[in-house]
Amino acid sequence: MPLYNVRISQVFEEIADLLDIEEANPFRIRAYRNAARTLSEYHQELAALVAQGQPLPKLPGIGADLGTKIVEIAQTGSCALLDRLRGEVPPAVAYLLSLPGLGPKRVRTLYHELAITSPSHLQHAAEQGLVRRLPGFGPKLEQQLLQALAKHLDTQARLPRASVRPSVEKLLDYLLRVPGVRQVEVAGSYRRRRDTVGDIDILVAAAPGYDVPFAFTAHEDVDEVLAQGTTKASVRLRNGLQVDLRVVRPESFGAALLYFTGSKAHNIALRLMARERGLKINEYGVYRDGQRIAGDSESSVYALLQMPVIPPELREMRGEIEAARHGSLPTLLTWQDLRGDLHTHTAASDGQSSIKDMALAAHALGLEYLAITDHSPQQRLARGLNEERLLAQLDEIDRLQSAGGLGVTLLKGMEVDILEDGRLDLSAALLDRLDIVVAAMHDHFSLSRARQTSRLLRALDQRVHILAHPTGRLIGRRAPIAVDFALVLHRAREVGCALELDAQPLRLDLDDLHCREAKEAGVLISINSDAHSAADLRNLRYGVEQARRGWLERQDVLNSRTLAQLKAFLKRR
DNA sequence: GCCGTTTTCGGCCCGACTGTTTTCAGTCG
């Protein structure tokens, strides 16, 4: 069974938790947590390298010792250190760390004083009033823990960013009208345009003397006030979303925006750089000898570190600081760069709009071309088009096109199913009649890595222009397929096939790291809406945002090409 | 446990809020 980086990362996280409870050296604990994060985001499976006898790549924060442990975990599935720690502290104790208000010190107290090793133990003790008597605990904390335990079944999952947008925009609108407020921005992973968000961080610049947190917690959507002070507040909305507010003076807005946008790793790197220059950065500004010398804007802070402003989408400690220092930051793709959409559905299969309405909507968005790509016959539930209906659709597109007035050029296409063995769900003769072939998997997501890889490689050997939603993931619902992605990229480059960044908010597939890997492999990305209605075309914007997180520039994206360039690309197959 | 154009030893980001420990530790981001 393959052992993924995520699993190794989990081992390191558990070691960190248990070391925390044992009161180990905090920097040693941090080293394990940093390594866990690095591993969980690394695109190449390390266990596979180990199995092939190859050396591990040099990764930040992973030195000789952790490298040895990675090899040990890859080879044995476990780790002697973890086994030893589990012998000293029952593993369920670490679980208590996830409860709000409980950190290593209090968990340790609970374990040593009351022998509490699980959430149910804790609940029992709290109900008997034993917890409040412990040092460092009190009645309020006991109550808070009971509430958290009662709710703990609905664990805090990250939500797709698009799904929280309405709530966020409503709050921003409200805050802008609060007296004293000068400026409002969403920070955090929302501003970095991550595909999912855990909570929302809102930053406000306000004149002194106004109680903005008070107004914030009074908003009609607030269900519960978790914390409230003069400069910050934290609430849970009725829809379950946690929102944190920070209020700063206008002159600190840039430094605060930088700080609360993160990522944490990016901030730490900036602060270390500042320190090397005799400066101190905090959320109020940049200081030299106690004197504030910058901070009203983000650019003022970066300028002191001799860097241009790094776009929020890149602030993930994935080489952006080195690139900024060397003047080699990418010129990121923008919405204006997109000229068309190459994967859309109509009412002929499982969409809702007519071809004409789709075209008009695309024109209204400023697009120049639009591919109509309804489903192939195997997709029965989606009313996939058989040969007869497909040919009728092709005729209809010709008629609409010659009648004119659409504002966009239509391309004749189909989203063809990739069958379990890698064949396509359409005859070669029909494939040849299409302007563009988009191929996608819609089933057999759990094939072995080897079978899934050969399935995709075989698909790529046929007349396919775009491999759609290549990993098949659905955020929060379906994991990406197991596949040798490097091999797929290599073949895609050889045969001249693009990979899709499907812009549906629940797909966003490829993800940011895969996009970057494709770019480095020289494979074009096509950012498509996969729209099932005219309104869905607007989802393209989410695709652009994710593409930016993948460091994509205009030249990396197929549908930033002019129509003539696009046609030249399509004709090569 | 990691890391190094001042370092192979001695550092490791920084501040706000809460509850309770009557002066601050613990937690969180």
From TrEMBL:
Catalytic activity: a 5'-end 2'-deoxyribose-2'-deoxyribonucleotide-DNA = (2E,4S)-4-hydroxypenten-2-al-5-phosphate + a 5'-end 5'-phospho-2'-deoxyribonucleoside-DNA + H(+); DNA(n) + a 2'-deoxyribonucleoside 5'-triphosphate = DNA(n+1) + diphosphate; 2'-deoxyribonucleotide-(2'-deoxyribose 5'-phosphate)-2'-deoxyribonucleotide-DNA = a 3'-end 2'-deoxyribonucleotide-(2,3-dehydro-2,3-deoxyribose 5'-phosphate)-DNA + a 5'-end 5'-phospho-2'-deoxyribonucleoside-DNA + H(+)
Entry superkingdom: Bacteria
InterPro entries registered for this protein in UniProt: DNA-dir_DNA_pol_X, DNA_pol_B_palm_palm, DNA_pol_lamdba_lyase_dom_sf, DNA_Pol_thumb_sf, DNA_pol_X_beta-like, HHH_MUS81, Hlx-hairpin-Hlx_DNA-bd_motif, NT_sf
Domain DNA-directed DNA polymerase X: 3-316
Chief localisation class: cytoplasm
GO biological process, one term: DNA repair
Subcellular location: Cytoplasm
Residue ranges of every copy of the Polymerase/histidinol phosphatase N-terminal domain listed in the record: 340-420
Helix-hairpin-helix DNA-binding motif class domain ranges (all copies): 54-73, 94-113, 129-148
Keywords for this protein: DNA damage, DNA repair, DNA replication, DNA synthesis, DNA-directed DNA polymerase, Methylation, Nucleotidyltransferase, Sodium, Transferase, Ubl conjugation
Example of a GO MF term: zinc ion binding
Alphabetized CDD domains for the sequence: NT_POLXc, PHP_PolX
Cofactor needs: Mg(2+)
EC number(s) from the headed UniProt entry: 2.7.7.7, 4.2.99.18
Residues forming coiled coils: none
GO cellular component: cytosol
Presence of the UniProt keyword Nucleotidyltransferase in the record: yes
Record's function text: Repair polymerase that plays a key role in base-excision repair. During this process, the damaged base is excised by specific DNA glycosylases, the DNA backbone is nicked at the abasic site by an apurinic/apyrimidic (AP) endonuclease, and POLB removes 5'-deoxyribose-phosphate from the preincised AP site acting as a 5'-deoxyribose-phosphate lyase (5'-dRP lyase); through its DNA polymerase activity, it adds one nucleotide to the 3' end of the arising single-nucleotide gap.
Name of this protein: DNA polymerase beta
Protein's organism: Pseudogulbenkiania subflava DSM 22618
